[in-house]
Design a protein that fits this description.
The chain is an alpha/beta fold. Helices cover 35% and strands 26% of the residues. It has a single domain, classed as Rossmann fold. It is globular, with a radius of gyration of 17 Å. Bound molecules: adenosine-5'-diphosphate and magnesium ion (MG).
Length: 221
């Protein structure tokens, strides 16, 4: 599903020397796999996840997802591809504060061009599946952190993406709420969803099927 070859990404900070965030990564993630990217803070997890999702362009190497070389697409083509094929979950939820739960989730199907009524139906369906049937019309500010993350997960899953990418999705949640999100991810993976999750927590990583360790931009075997 994901094929990464010789991937490197350098950053030039506004002050100080160049940083090699990723240095020659070769990686395959198979369809239906649940992979956990682990490693200490600064090891390159976010950079790798964003490169898979086409949010960052590699300095060298290639990223292919579901047969499309993401790194070779133009910016507008990449945005269209992303809306259709990828779901993202972030540590800080990134919900639109003035839209309700169901409206936030609608954004994903609307972005890929589905009609309003159709988008709303998909949004309600996935929110119900994630246990939020009685929270559809709540604003993010009226939801607990765990519920907000479930809305964000619903938005990421609404388009049935080829790949779900999650960057420290439990980082802002307490133990029980983190476990609930992991339960949902494990459940979605059992339904066939390919997932790549970045975490610095061994406890979280232990729930995934495959573990990929990063250290200073390199894979540790
Ligand atoms: P992780 O997610 O594992 O904590 P990151 O991928 O965020 O690691 O960062 C890897 C390295 O790249 C770090 O040393 C970080 O400081 C550096 N880095 C990340 N983004 C930038 C940026 N936009 N500009 C400069 N350096 C960056
Ligand atoms: Mg990170």
């Amino acid at each position: 599903m994901i094929s990464i070859k010789g991937l490197s990404r350098k950053f030039q900070p506004s002050r100080g020397g160049e940083v090699a965030a990723l240095a020659g990564i070769d990686l395959e993630v198979k369809s239906g796999e649940f992979a956990a990217l682990t490693g200490p803070s600064g090891s390159g997890k976010t950079t790798l996840l964003f490169s898979i999702g086409g949010l960052l362009t590699p300095t060298a190497g290639s990223v292919t997802v579901a047969g499309i070389e993401v790194s070779g697409l133009s910016a507008p083509a990449r945005a269209r591809w992303r809306a259709k094929n990828l779901g993202f979950v972030f540590q800080t939820f990134h919900l639109v504060p003035y839209l309700s739960a169901v409206e936030n989730v609608c954004l994903a199907p609307l972005a890929r061009g589905r009609a309003g009524a159709d988008a709303r139906k998909a949004a309600e369906e996935i929110l119900k599946r994630l246990g939020l049937a009685d929270r559809l019309d709540h604003l993010p500010g009226e939801l607990s952190a765990g519920e907000q993350q479930r809305v964000s997960l619903a938005r990421a899953l609404a388009n049935e993406p080829a790949v779900l990418l999650a960057d420290e999705p439990t980082g802002n949640l307490d133990g029980p709420r983190a476990a609930e999100i992991m339960d949902l991810l494990v459940e979605e993976n059992k339904r066939g969803q390919t997932i790549v999750l970045a975490t610095h927590s061994d406890q979280v990583a232990a729930r995934a099927g495959v573990r990929i360790r990063l250290d200073r931009g390199k894979l540790m075997l």
